[in-house]
Each structure stands twice: as C-alpha cells, then as structure tokens.
C-alpha cells in the first residue's frame, strides 16, 4: 500500500557491482557474470518525508541477484546511518520498502529475501570528485577514473545520460571500483577494478 | 604523414560490435569478451575531398582485434560504395589509407592486415536507432532502441565523450541483426550498437 505522505530526497550516489566495466544491466542488458553482487550508496544532501527532514542521512543498499537483474529473486539488505533519528529511520524504512511510491515501489517486487536493516556508522566522502563509502569492519567501497589506454594521456571522464535503471537521475560518470569489500555476516563479496558509476539523484513520491 | 588536401565529411554513423550493451570500449575498459569484432558505417550527407564531392556516399569499415582496439594487431576490410565515380573512389581510398587524418588514420594505425576492399551497393534507411542497412551479401545491420526491461518502453540512452574519435555524442542501442560476410565473418546480432552524427575534416 502506498502512503500519501509526500517525500523527496536528493544527493550523491555511488554504484558498484561485480560486472565488468561498464555494467550492461544499466543499459537494459544482463550481468557479465552471475550472481550479480552490487552496492548502491546514497548520501542525502537535502530531503524530507512529510515534516521529517532527511538531509545529511546516508544509506547503503547491498544485494545479491541470482540471474538476470529484472527476473527478481534478489537477496537485499540496507544499512541505515547510525546518526538517523527514530523518525528518519521510520521514514526511510517506509520509502525503501516501496510503500511510499517512487522507483522503490516497483523494485520492491524483485526482492525475494529481505535482510533485516541495520543501523551502522556510514562514512560517505567525496575526494577529488570520486566517491568513497566506509562502514568500519563491514564495507569499504570507492570509485576512480579509468586510466587512459594511451600512455601519457589523462584518464577520461565519459558520461552517459538517461541510463535504463531509474536510480540515476542525472548524467552518470562511468568509473571503475578501487574496492568493493563487503564483510557482513549475512552477505560478503569483494571486487576490485570492476564496474562503478557515480552521479547525483533526485527522487520523490508518492 | 598528413598531406595538404582540404577535406570534410559530415553525416550519420552506424556501428555494431561483439560487446554487450553499453560497450566497455567506450570507457577505455576491455571489450566484453576480451576481443573485439565490429563495423562502422558512414553515410556521408555532406562531403568533399579536394575537388571531389562525396555527398550521399556510404562506406564501411569492419575489423577484428585479438584484444582492445587500441592494442592493435587488427585485421580490417573496407566496403566502398559501388555507386562512387572514379574520382570519388580515389578520394575514398586516399582517406582509407590513413594519410589524411581523421578517424581513418587511427584505424590504419591499429590495423596490421588490411584486406582488399569490397565494392557493394548500399541500401539503407537511416533513421536513428531504427536504421537498417545492407551492402549486398557482405554486410547487414539493423538497429533498435533498448527497451526498458520492466516497462517495455524504448530508452533514450546517450553517450557523451568529448574525446571520442569517431563521434562525440552517440545514441546507444542494440542490433537486431549484425552480420559481416567478407574476408572474415561476424554474426553478433543482439549485441551493442550505436547511432551518431559525425563531422570530420582535414588537414
């Protein structure tokens, strides 16, 4: 059921996954290897759910997908910022579970095994235009520019507009991962140099 | 060596290859399967090489590479438009050889073996990601927009690459058919494809 509370949020997004650069799923294709394992990190710069402000709150979605992304069967968990208040946690739980509209609503239908949400310290930093996420003892993740194959030339910043997936709402800067290391008791994986994308997001509902 | 003949070519570029949708090569990453097989087709809407008008001509380049294109060791074959006059053919082959710059010089630099060109009449309907074209039995490409896997709606995915050497802004799609049957054979139907405007000139 979709609640009638109106909400919006905008900020920075970092996507990392097990695919080779550039993750074909973002273009409507299939993962380069199975299972697909992915991290989506969000830093809300500004936002609200009803009268509750969401600005400054970070959250991270982590997922394992057994086959084609949109065939479903996802195992998915969420890390919520430990700094979030009880009202903010409840607002985000409602939004992320798809009960408040926006793109989270159709996506909730792909989740077969939801993991219990956890409140943890999430450090989300921008360093020279690249994004880094760290959850001490649980997650290390970051992006970097792909080196130019021509010696002596600076790395490129190739962008894609209007990717097929709904969570990038602005131009996507295609990157590679410096690390994606998840060591959660419920799910763990590690990749280096695989697909990474950075962008901004702006979502609203219902 | 770049020689002093004024030339320009402007029109539409169609490309299809062996990579997955999005094509990692666009981002300086390794091709999906480690190797690359692909074709570019140029439809010249406005072109001139010295005194020769190249308006309306088609030309294509098919190549295969054991690794990323920039690592070289490629084998390539051109298809020249069978409707070109003698003067136009001389101009086209001068460009193909790579001595007058543009993307043709880069293709020449990464290609080890250039097979004898094919002459074919091109039949085409150039219409963005709905384009389709055929050059006799040698080449056939049909493009399509990517459909959203959830809603089924056509997607408008755009690549922006200011340093791109064949084009700087492309519409990204897929092939429904990509077959090359020349000195080597490709059949990568359903894989990556793109449509882009191009604008080259020299020297």
Describe this structure in words.
- With 206 residues, chain A is mainly beta.
- Chain A has a single domain (8-205), classed as Acetoacetate decarboxylase-like (Beta Barrel).
- Chain A has 2 helices and 14 strands; from the N terminus they run E-E-E-E-E-H-H-E-E-E-E-E-E-E-E-E.
- In chain A, strands 1, 2, 3, 4, 5, 6, 7, 8, 9, 10, 11, 12, 13 and 14 form a 14-stranded mixed sheet that branches.
- Chain A starts with 6 loop residues before the first strand and ends with a strand.
- Chain B is mainly beta.
- The longest helix of chain B has 11 residues, at 86-96.
- Chain B has 2 helices and 14 strands.
- In chain B, strands 1, 2, 3, 4, 5, 6, 7, 8, 9, 10, 11, 12, 13 and 14 form a 14-stranded mixed sheet that branches.
- In chain B, a hairpin with a 2-residue loop joins strand 2 and strand 3 (52-53).
- Strand 11 of chain A pairs antiparallel with strand 11 of chain B, so a sheet runs across the interface.
Q: How many structural domains in the coordinates of chain A?
A: 1
Mean pLDDT of chain B, as a whole number? 96
Q: Overall pLDDT of chain A, averaged?
A: 95
Give me the count of strands of chain A.
14
Secondary-structure element order of chain B, as H and E? EEEEEHHEEEEEEEEE
Alpha carbon gyration radius of chain B: 16 Å
Task: Calculate the terminal CA-CA distance of chain B, rounded to whole Å.
Answer: 10 Å
What is the structural class of chain A?
mainly beta
Structural class of chain B: mainly beta
Number of domains of chain B: 1
Task: Categorize the overall geometry of chain A.
Answer: globular
Strand residues, percent of chain A: over 45%
The general outline of chain B is globular
At CATH level 3, the topology of chain A is Acetoacetate decarboxylase-like
Low-confidence residue ranges of chain B: none
Share of residues in helices of chain A: under 10%
Largest sheet of chain B: 14 strands, mixed
Q: Tell me roughly what share of residues is in helical segments of chain B.
A: under 10%
């Amino acid at each position: 059921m979709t609640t009638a509370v109106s909400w919006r949020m905008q900020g920075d997004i970092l996507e990392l996954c097990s695919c080779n650069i550039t993750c074909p799923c973002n273009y409507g294709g299939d993962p380069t290897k199975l299972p697909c394992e992915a991290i989506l990190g969000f830093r809300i710069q500004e936002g609200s759910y009803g009268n509750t402000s969401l600005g400054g709150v970070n959250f991270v979605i982590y997922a394992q997908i057994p086959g084609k992304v949109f065939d479903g069967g996802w195992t998915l968990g969420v890390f919520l910022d430990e700094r979030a208040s009880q009202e903010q946690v409840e607002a985000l739980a409602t939004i992320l579970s798809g009960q408040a509209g926006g793109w989270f609503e159709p996506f909730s239908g792909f989740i077969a095994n939801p993991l219990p949400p956890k409140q943890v310290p999430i450090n989300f930093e921008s360093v020279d235009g690249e994004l880094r996420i760290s959850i001490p003892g649980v997650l290390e993740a970051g992006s970097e520019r792909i080196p130019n194959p021509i010696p002596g030339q600076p790395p490129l910043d190739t962008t894609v507009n209007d990717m097929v997936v709904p969570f990038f709402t602005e131009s996507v800067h295609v990157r590679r991962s410096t690390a994606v290391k998840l060591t959660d008791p419920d799910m763990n994986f590690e990749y280096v140099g695989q697909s990474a994308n950075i962008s901004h997001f702006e979502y609203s509902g219902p | 060596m770049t020689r002093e003949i004024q030339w320009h070519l402007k029109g539409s570029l169609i490309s299809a290859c062996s990579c997955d949708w999005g094509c990692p090569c666009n981002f300086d990453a390794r091709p999906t399967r480690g190797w690359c097989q692909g074709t570019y087709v140029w439809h010249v809407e406005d072109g001139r090489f010295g005194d020769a008008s190249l308006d309306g001509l088609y030309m294509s380049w098919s190549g295969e590479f054991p690794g990323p294109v920039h690592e070289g060791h490629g084998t390539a074959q051109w298809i020249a438009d069978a409707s070109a006059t003698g003067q136009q053919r001389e101009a086209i082959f001068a460009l193909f050889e790579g001595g007058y710059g543009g993307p043709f010089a880069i293709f020449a630099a990464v290609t080890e073996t250039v097979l004898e060109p094919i002459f074919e009449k091109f039949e085409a309907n150039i219409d963005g990601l709905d384009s389709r074209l055929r050059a006799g039995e040698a080449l056939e490409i049909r493009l399509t927009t990517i459909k959203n896997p959830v809603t089924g709606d056509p997607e408008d995915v755009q690549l922006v690459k200011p340093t791109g050497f064949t084009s700087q802004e492309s519409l990204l799609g897929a092939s429904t058919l990509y077959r090359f049957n020349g000195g080597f054979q490709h059949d990568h139907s359903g894989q990556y494809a793109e449509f882009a405007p191009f604008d080259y000139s020299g020297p």
